[in-house]
Amino acid sequence: MQHTIRFLYLFLVIVFFSVTTYAQNLCTATISPSGTAYICNGTPLILTANEGVVNNDLKFRWFKDGQPIPGATNQTYNATGIGTYAVEVSSISNTCNPNTTDPGTRVELGPTLTRPDFTISPTGVQCSGIPYTFTIVGPNDPNVEYLWDFGDGTIGRGYEVNHAFNYFGTGTKSFSVTVVTASRGCRSQTSIAQTVTVNGGPNFTEADVTDSADFEVCIPKDSAISVKAKLFNNIVAASAAGITGYRVRWNPDDVNEVSYTPEQFDADSPIRNPTPFTTIGTHPISITAIGATCNTTITLQYEVSQKPTAGFQVSPPDGKKRLDPNQCVPVIVTPTDSAKGGNLTYKWAVLNNQGQPAGGFAYINNTSDTSAAPVFQFNEMGRFQVQQIVTNQCGSDTTSQSVLIAYPEVQLNADGPFCGPTTIKFSDQNVFYDANLGTEVPTSFRWIISGTSGATFINGTSANSKYPEISFPNVGEYKVSVSFANECGNSADVAQQGAGEITITVNEVPNAPIITTTGVSICSGESTDIKPTGPAGNTFIFYGSPTGGTPLDTAATYTTGPLSVSTTFYITTLSPNGCESTGARTPFAVTVLPPIANNTISQDQEVCQGSAPKLLSGTQPTGGDTNGYRYQWQLSTTGPNGTFATAPGVNNSRDYTPPVLQQNAWLRRLISSASCSGDTSNVVAITVTPRIAGGNITGDQQVCANEPVLPLIGSPLAGGTIQWRSSTVSATAGFTPATNINNEVNYEPGILNQSTWFRRYIISGGCVDSSNVVIVTVDQPVTNNTILADQSLCGGEQPAPLTGSGPQGGTLPLRYIWESSTTGATTGFAPAVGTNNTANYNPAVLTVTTWFRRGVISGTCDPNYSNVAQITVLPLITNNSINGTEPAVCENTAPKTITGSAPSGGNGTYTYLWESSITSATAAFAPAAGTNNTQNYTPPVISRTTWYRRTVISDNCTSISQTIEIKVNPLPPVPVVAANSVTTCLDSTATLVATGTGLTYQWFETPTGGNILFEGATFVTNRIAQSTTFYVQAVNQNQCVSPARTPVTVNVTSITASAGRDTTIIEGNTMELIGRGGVRYKWEPATGLNDPNVERPVASPTKTTTYKVTAFSEEGCAATDEVTITVIPRVLIVNTFSPNHDGINETWEIQRIENYPEATVEIFNRWGTKVFTSDIGYKKAWDGTYNGQDLPLATYYYIIRLDKISKPISGNVTLIR
């Protein structure tokens, strides 16, 4: 029985192995095209099995919708109907087992595409390099692609494309342009070819231009950038023959180009940019060769570089983050590049702490060690050095930074050294904990203090506090360190030298300064020394205030500057280790006595010989020692700078009275106080003068008012100064210095207006004497002689009488004489005609302007004339006419300006008054509205027929113009529109309609003013991108415009479609697509969707598919978006293999697992022991061993995890030996 069971088991194993082997030796079966394909324009679709394979041992059988197609046994098949096609591939010699394609190819009917046509703009011949615009005739179909062939080796895509044809040489060249439309694999018939002809441009190429630096310049690091290119033109003579000049745009931002002649730009004459290049980088230089017909433009790239400077930063969160926030590693590090220099190439490296290349990291996101912006994935914890090497044509530079992965880090700072016992309260200002993307472990903080003893944690803190407060009571050095942990490790495990540790130094505080005296007194302007005597071995800090402030000096002795005010200085001790004594600063007072001031005496005197001078007064002095001043008056007879001696008499008082003097003398006062220097006053002079006699004068006389007085004659004098004095009071009082020249022997009084007394004074020093008195008697003039009044009249009018005032003064009886002049107000006067000797006067009729005055005669004095009265005779006003350009205006419209002629006549100065009437041309005129007093007149808005005229006034002359009439036409009504608000889609037009007949309608963008957009009742707008209000006005046959514009608002509604995020699924799974943004939807392609017209269809794609959703709004507006569903084939798992070292079926192969790079495989024996764990991606298949030893024949259990989100796959596999 046991033998039978063993045999049966062996038979089953052989059968199972045979089945497994058969399943693994299938024939290859593929179809081209795969997925979904289309039958285009009724032409059968050719399906090919195993395309590119020629193998006569293979045979084929085609299926449609799962059913064999009769007679379809060739390698190709012409599909003519809709359905799903598959092919079975088998071997005639049985070298492989039959295999049918799964999935097959889905065949659909493609669109019917019409032959396209297109237009070309412009239609004529253009120069080489100038683009043409090619536009498809008809609407743009979003489901169709337009493919262009320009006939010059290039192609294009789009409904409307621009393309420039290049041809260099003489004459013209033609190009044939065609276009086809394509959609879902189908193409239309090629369009009829159209020809484009271009004129050739100069044969001028980039190779013709060379640069002395070969277009690359290196600038030394940190040097100013100022580069000028030096370009040579090496164009051959044949190509240069037709070039008349060159234009160069040295900088793309330049508004203007620089022009050069061919002689200025050739192989021997270089050109240079007027403005140097001042930045690192590529500078495009555009050069245009100007031909007789066309131009050719080339662009050269001029590189300005600098010796590079390496630099980068790694800053969380963007520069450093965990791949999985819950895992310590991997950590993604993205450096931010700050290297400089231009045209850089990069080389990155990662080193360990020994400076050797490190492991445990990888470049990800398609970056490498030569990327400008690499992305590192660190898979191991620790400290690494990231190194950057940047290179360009100017050299290279290297920099590196330390990057800590996973472990936390702490930086500890503290001020110091400290003077005397100190307490440090640590906080986030001096302790910087970096959890390095992790989380602090609250119980992990550990502070260690070593060195000088006595330090304690205070105020409830401890060695395990995050921010402790520590007291350092003793002089000495303390070592303080701190460490902490995150979920990945402790900062102490990877701490750099000095990180997390500081030294606290506490120095001894010195005693206060010792000074033998507390102060000193000095005079103003003196200085003094301040010198403390202890404590020994220290220096001292001198301040100007008891607290705060900036030190004046730090020294053993401080010398003050010259002082003008009392000052207290304050001193502290400074030890050699920089500690300053505490407590109150030691004061030192310097008392400054102010200088003696306010020492002046007054004043200079002149005295007659033998007379006593007046008292000399002195001011009360200030400054010095105010307890008492000492005075001394001094006198000199040799001058103010001569020799001074003590003055006679009482000379030690504040004031001084000089004695009688016989000669000139000078005096001054000296004041002294305490020990300060004395002060000398100013000097005053006393001048002593000999006496002199005054002499006699003659000249009594009587004159009319305003008549010259004869000179007054004086007797000769022996010396002294003369001064004539006058008085209008009496012969004995009221004398003051006479006017005019009053210091000569004789005196001319001039013209006097009242009786006056005169006498002559002689002055010599302090001596004065006077002459006898003479009188000049003055007869008073006539006053109050005025006449009235000026007149202005037109020729032929009678003047009004001229009246005169009652004159006053003079000698009675008074006599009158009227005089007239026709030449002016100051000349040509003669007795007036008629009765001219009365107080008033009646002029006769005048024909010319005439001036009049009245003379009043008193005694024998000349007449006293009145003011002049002018009677102006004016010519009549002429040339007063007006002209209007509009016989009629629209209602409520202001007429144009009415012009008036320039009048003549009158006095040449004119006043205007415009008048209007709404009654008739002859009645009811009143001042016109608005500005009505200028030569021309602009009427305001009028609503009915109005007449206008102009009155011109010049002095007393008046003239009225003719009358003009302006009629008023009625306005059309405000337009009525079909709809005041319409709605349209984004970037679409709108149709606006104004109703009514007999009127013209004009459309605007503004409620008033602006330009006419369209004229007509129906207005189709341009495409609109945002809501806009348009305005329409009506115009009647009289060109009158409606009083207001009617607004019509076009509301633009937009829609944004969303198809969701791109997703990856495993073959055979489904995915719900989610559309957003509309009220209805259309999904394409419909293949694999349960319903293409719903918001959330379920997709079952058999291959990677991009779905496009079109979302429609309630208004019919549409928008599209796309989503790609990537389909990964399922893995094929066999459940047996035979690792018996015969070279066949040695490992457990899992087909298609290479599509899952994150896949892992675990295998367990029947007791649950894990015997195999794969690497990520199952790159090395299981060979049936465990710990290097072959496992026995048995059934094992597997768990396959394709990725981190898919459900694990489990099952069993049998190992056969």
UniProtKB/TrEMBL annotation:
SUPFAM superfamilies: PKD domain. Pfam families: CHU_C (PF13585), Ig_7 (PF19081), PKD (PF00801). InterPro entries: Ig-like_fold (IPR013783), Ig_7 (IPR044023), PKD/Chitinase_dom (IPR022409), PKD_dom (IPR000601), PKD_dom_sf (IPR035986), T9SS_type_B (IPR026341). Residues 133-178 form the PKD domain. SMART domains: PKD. This is Gliding motility-associated C-terminal domain-containing protein. It comes from Adhaeribacter radiodurans. The lineage of its organism: Bacteria, Pseudomonadati, Bacteroidota, Cytophagia, Cytophagales.
